[in-house]
Amino acid sequence: MNTISSTSILVDQSIENANQSRIEKLVQLLLSFNVDRKRIDESNHQHAKLVLRIFAIYMIFVSNVLIVAVLMQSAESFLITNTFECHLIQKRFAVKTLLTERNVQHNVYMINFNQIATIQDIWQFMNETLAEVFLRVQQQPSRPNSTLIHWVLDHFLLIGVVRMRQVRVKPEKCHIPKLYSDEIADCYPAYSSDKKDTDPFGPITLSDSTDINLKQPWRFMSKDKTGMGSHTGQHGKYDGSGYIADLAQYDRTYRRFTRDINELERFHWLDKATRALFIDIITYNPSVNLFSYIKLVFEMPLTGGIFPSHKVENFQLFRYVGSKKYVLIICEATIVLFTIIFLLVEILTMIKLKFKIFLSFWNWIDMILLIISILLIIVNIYRLILINSTLTNQLSIYLVTFDTAIVKLLRLHNLFDTLSILLASISIIRILKYCDFAVMLIRIKATIQRCLGDLIGFLVMFVAIMIAYAQFGNLVLGQQAPAFSTVGKAFVALFRTVLGDFNFEDIRDAAPIVGPLFFFFYIFSMVFMLFNMVLAIIVDSYEELGSERRDIINQMLVDVTPFMKHSIQRFFERLGVWTKVRVLVHSIIRAEDISNTKTIGDLLQEFKYSATSSTLYEELHQAFVHDMTKTISKKDFDAFLKYAHRDKDRQRDTLQSLFTGKKSLINFNEEQDWNTHASNLCTIQQWAQLRYRIARLEELFNSMDGKWKYSMRTSKNLLRTRNLSREISEEKQNT
Q1: Which cysteines share a disulfide bond (predicted)?
Q2: How far apart are CA 425 and CA 313, in angstroms?
Q3: Cα–Cα 20 to 30 A to 552, which of 206, 248, 364, 735?
């Protein structure tokens, strides 16, 4: 029994060791995807092989991301947007005025959507344009249930009804002089969450409200009940709450639609307390499988006036239909698999490097890419669940109320599209991480690393100057030029001016004297000075890198040429045709060398246009008239044009020695050879510096010589004086 138990323990230990070895191999395999630096024990051949392998694997991921991003876009989206813009935005309608009501004039004033300026124009647009497009439709008896389906423009199905939503503000006391306060009681502020109106208004506040059919539009609804999202317009940001009017609800006919519009107009549903009006319409085109969300916005700021805008968004909610659904499913499954692998690699790298992982730029890119991939997977799963639970249980084309579920799906699909585009863009940028086998890309990366500090310093100065110009432009030109009405718009306008997109007439008309001066100084300081400074910083860094930092390029370079040659050789060796392929390659190289050779006739013809005189060409042509078909190498051809045009005698001797093969052209003349070596050993600047130093040495030697002579003279005088004093003292002693 003891033997059996010990044997089982040994078997369990061996199985555990085998599992541990497999886990270690898996960890090493995942860590091998990190090719930021070459390992010490790794050869160049192994590192190049690893880089190419990971690059090929990553390109599979990038190709799948691009396929998903391309398949989610439809080429018909632009056509649908253009169709609705032609029938809604650009279509002209008659404006109701006092003269037209009295039939005084026959020429009715016509405007389009973008020219709407009053609340009366909005009601006229709803009655004529919007009702004609979406409610006055022809029934199609050939289709089942055609009485319940509304076709729009013959190709679109109306989903639900047309919804109008307005946001209002509460009146407040005006801050005006007391002289006007008796006549002006209330003022209406700009829209904000703390000043919006939530109280009922209109006819439902009266004791007798039995003569109205629509009661909901006069009551406030929160954004949770409306199901609408917030909107950022030109003059403010508006939440999803407000007063809702679903037109032609439960009876989607033209007559019911116009009756509801006339009732809202008669009881003044829109007034000066309204800050924004939103019109939401949803359609579906079964021919191209696209949902369209049309949003018409009328902003009414506290300054007065109406500012219309519109947006048409097209979405493909049913993505897994047709022949492309299998391709889409495979690509999305591949992205999920790669995301799991990237997550494991990032976790292991974070455990290994800890906080050092945040010191690398590419690690930040990897983490951003991983976060976007995970969010994209979560949003896609949630979107599929909502589609299956919402659109499969009900057919929205039969709805007689506004479908808020589809609005929620459209917002979620918009988020999915945004994440897909971000993932595709960052994935393409990350390709540069594996492109260290291209010398030019390495030089660009090293140049950016070298000049990054200077560029950041320049960016700070650039932003400061741009803010100063934007503030000045807003203060001086803001009241007249639309591009400078706010500081933000002025900042954008100045950026566009740098790119050459500007309207000088608006600047000149806004300030005839200051405007042109402002434009001149801005162009001079920003374009001619600062942007040339950026180019100078980058060019200097690039040149310094080429001359001083070749070791950086050698460290970053992944030389894949030997590995590629070895792989190609092994491939053809396995096929047994390597010898034939090598002979073929050598023959092609020799043929290329032969094609690069030139004849004497070509040389003289080229020299004809580069010679200093026509007589020199004629003398050379007569001297070598019988040798025109002889060939010379391209190296000697270029060397002759470089060196042999100074002296006609030297040219003739050079050609004779060249064609007889006695000497090489470059080493023919000792003086030229010496000049060539001297130019390689010493430049003109170095020679001038050497001459300056020699002159300084001569001055020092002359100064030292003068000082030495002065010291010798002084010492001789001292010795002479000492000897005289000694002789005088001796004479005194003797006497």
Answers
A1: 174-187
A2: 22
A3: 364
Task: Quote the tokens at residue 113.
Answer: 């959507």
d(CA 28, CA 149): 62
Residue for token pair 């059996």? 4
Question: Torsions phi, psi of 271, nearest 5?
Answer: -145, -165
Strand partners, 291: 284, 315
What are 298's strand-pairing partners?
A: 277, 308
Full-model pTM: 0.67
- Cβ-based neighbour number of residue 350 at 10 Å: 15
d(CA 470, CA 473): 5
559 is in an annotated binding site: no
Strand pairing class (231-232; 237-238): antiparallel
Parallel/antiparallel/unpaired status of strands 631-632 and 598-599: antiparallel
- Cβ burial of 311 (10 Å; 0-12, 13-18, 19+) is exposed
CATH of the domain spanning 440-556: 1.10.287
- With both helix axes pointing from N to C terminus, report the angle between 634-643 and 648-660 in degrees, rounded to the nearest 10: 160
**140: burial class by Cβ within 10 Å (0-12, 13-18, 19+)?**
exposed
Per the model's pLDDT, the better-predicted residue between 362 and 381 turns out to be 381
- DSSP, res 395: -
Residues 488, 505 contacting (CB under 8 angstroms): no
SS3 of 300-361: the string is: CCCCCCCEEEEEEEEECCCCCCCCHHHHHHHHHHHHHHHHHHHHHHHHHHHHHHHHHHHHCH
Residue type, 562: P
User: Distance of CA 49 to CAs 39, 342, 532, 561, Å?
Assistant: 13, 20, 42, 11
CA angle 512, 514, 517 (to 5 degrees): 105
Where does residue 499 rank: exposed (0-12), middle (13-18), buried (19+ CB within 10 A)?
exposed
Dihedral sign for Cα atoms in the order 34, 37, 40, 41: positive
The pLDDT tens digits of the residues spanning 103-151 come to 545 556 788 999 998 999 999 999 888 988 887 755 454 444 444 567 8
3-state secondary structure 452-464: HHHHHHHHHHHHH
* SS3 of residue 169 by DSSP: strand
Specify whether the CB–CB gap between 435 and 76 falls below 8 A. Answer: no
d(CA 222, CA 237): 16
Between 227 and 27, residue with greater pLDDT: 227
Measure the CA–CA gap between 483 and 469, rounded to whole angstroms: 13
Please report how the helices 614-623 and 648-660 are oriented relative to each other, as an axis angle in degrees rounded to 10: 30
Nearest to 503 by CA among 488, 487, 483, 522: 483
- Which of 6-15, 67-76, 253-262 has the weakest average pLDDT? 6-15
Burial code (b: 16+ CB inside 10 Å, e: under 16) for 374-390 equals bebbebbeebeebbeeb
Nearest CA-CA partner of 219 in 187, 249, 246: 246
Distance of CA 370 to the CA centre of its chain: 20
**Phi-psi category of 69—alpha, beta or left, where left has phi over 0 and alpha has psi -120 to 50?**
alpha
105: helix, coil or strand?
coil
Closest CA to 36 of 357, 453, 429: 357
pLDDT at 13: 54
Dihedral Cα 117, 118, 124, 129, nearest 10 deg: 30
- Nearest-CA neighbor of 466 among 444, 439, 497? 497
SS3 of residue 597 by DSSP = coil
Domain ranges of the chain: 32-58+323-437, 77-315, 440-556, 562-593, 596-681, 682-735
